[in-house]
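Minutes, structural biology subgroup

Action item carried over from last meeting: produce the C-alpha cell record for Nitroreductase/dihydropteridine reductase (Mangrovibacterium diazotrophicum). EB confirmed the sequence was re-checked against the source entry. Recorded below for completeness.
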Amino acid sequence: MMDFKTLAGDRYATKKYDPSKKISNELVAQLKEILRLSPSSINSQPWRFTFVSDQKLKEELAPFSFHNASKLKDASHIVVFSVIDNLEKFESENIASLPEGAIAYYNNNIKPGSEEQIKAWMAHQVYLALGFFLSGAASLGIDSTPMEGVNAAEYDRVLGLKDHKTLFAVALGYRDPDDFNQPSLKPKSRIDIDKVIYSI
Ligand SMILES: Cc1cc2nc3c(=O)[nH]c(=O)nc-3n(C[C@H](O)[C@H](O)[C@H](O)COP(=O)(O)O)c2cc1C
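Output recorded by EB:
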C-alpha cells in the first residue's frame, strides 16, 4: 500500500472523468464505511451522505452544478454531503445517546450559542468528513472532486432532503487519461512550507 504522503501528492481535484469506468460495488461499500468512520467533535456525526449513481438523477443535478456539470454527467458516483438542519432532532437523536461527558460538553459549550453558531459547528464536522473521505478514496485508487460549486437549495429539492441541508458534493470515478489537472501534467501548487508551517 502506498504511504500517505505519496497519496497526498498524487490525489488531485479531477476535472474530467472517463464516463465508461464505474466504481465496483465492493469499492462503493468501502467508501460508505469510510464515511461512517469519520471522526467528529464529541462523536456528534451531524451528517447524511447520499450516494447518487443513477445516470438520470446525476443529469437532473447537472444544471444545478455550475462549472461542475460535466463531472455530474461523467463521474461514476456523486456523494452529496448534507448537515442536519433540525436542531431538535439532532439533540434527541445524536446528542442524547452520547456519553455523559459529551452531553455536558455540548450543553455547556455548544448549545448556548446562537442557532447560526451551532449550525456552523455542525457544518465543520461535515467538512472534516470531506478531508477524511478524499484521502480514503485516493487510498482505493479512486479519483475525486470536492464540489462547493453546487446549488444547495436545488440539490435539497431534487434529493427530497427535509431535515438536512446540502453543503457540497463529491464526484467519484476514474480520470480521463488526458485530464489536464492531474499532477503528472500540472504540478501541484501550494504555498511554501515555511509560510504555513511554524515550529516553535
Ligand atoms: C471545499 C472544497 C470545494 C471545492 N469546490 C470545487 C468545485 O466546485 N469544482 C472544482 O473543480 N474543484 C473544487 N475544489 C477543488 C480545489 O480547487 C482544489 O482542491 C485545490 O485547487 C487544490 O488542488 P488539488 O486538490 O488538485 O491538489 C474544491 C475543493 C474544496 C476543498
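Discussion: The domain at 4-196 is CATH 3.40.109.10 (NADH Oxidase).
Next step: EB to file the record with the rest of the batch.
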